[in-house]
Amino acid sequence: MVTEIHCSIDYIVIQSPGVYVLSLLRTYPKSLRVKLLCILFLGIVATVSVSFLVQLENTKDRIQEDEKKNMQLLSSVLYSILEQTMAKGKVDEVSRALDVIAMSPSITGIEILDRDMTTRFSSENRKPNSRVSLFIMPIRPRPICKRCHGNADPIGYLRIGFDTTTYEKRFYKEVSINLGTSVAVLLTLTILVYICLQKGIFSRLQKINVAMQYFGRGNFRYRITVKGEDELSRMARAFNEMARNIYKINYRLYKVSEFSTIINRCMSEDEVFHKTVEFLKRFFDINGVAIILSDPMERVVASTGEIEDFLYIEPILLKGKEIGCIKIAVSRDFTMEELSAIKIVTSSVSMALERVGQNRTI
After folding, report:
1. pTM reported for the whole predicted model
2. Are 74 and 118 contained in the same domain?
3. Could you tell me the residue range of the domain that residue 266 belongs to?
């Protein structure tokens, strides 16, 4: 048995991965959600980046300061040791002391320079290392040495090469920690901002969008749940009010069309007048209504509610001649939709009276 499967070409094209990706790329730049998230993400990235650069600079200064202090401390110790050795006046002991001191892992080499920066003594076990920081401190004569060197100040220089690998490793380690912390803060802030926007704005905008889709399909009973007093809440309330008014208008127009059918079934003029008064009072926000005939003199044939201070009068015509009017007491102005509905009601009354008159003649 062969089963035929009919599938729309549009469906195949839409489900194609390439076309789907292209449709996303075309849609996302137009999305308010994506635009707003991109702006906020860039702001968070800029803030976290500035904070990271500040931490990086502070870390660099702190490590350099520690390195400088350690160099000064170690140089002072070396200076004291060499000062004691040189005071004995034995060159061999000076060189031997330099070699022993240079065996420290943090020292790559030691040199003693004269006033002209010429090397006089140096350690033999030099450690080749490209990451070397040279530290130079002057050698000043002791009181016991002034007989040979006079009052010259200084009499030489002590140049020490320090291995900065340890400090660089420490710097890169702290940079890695700061970078990881910054990335974690960036991701955390991005997620928190997205959650806040999703709950506070995007979900509410989605509800408004769904409500407008229902509204576009003619469902005027759909309402948005409103919470809060912000701009979106006011927008939702305005939408609910608009939907409520339009639903009321459509309902009233539907009842007006239904009224035309009902009143055409009336068998007498009194029934037409009373049906009309009841309908106007029920489906219009009015204080009172009265139907007055003026042939041969004015008389109220039907009324309900307060019939004083009439603000609106609609004439009743029969074969082009005015035989009376409908007077309505209201405490506000009618909308255009209400005026149109009342005119339709009045026209229906005129046609019903004409039909009743014809039936009575027959």
Report:
1. 0.50
2. yes
3. 247-361
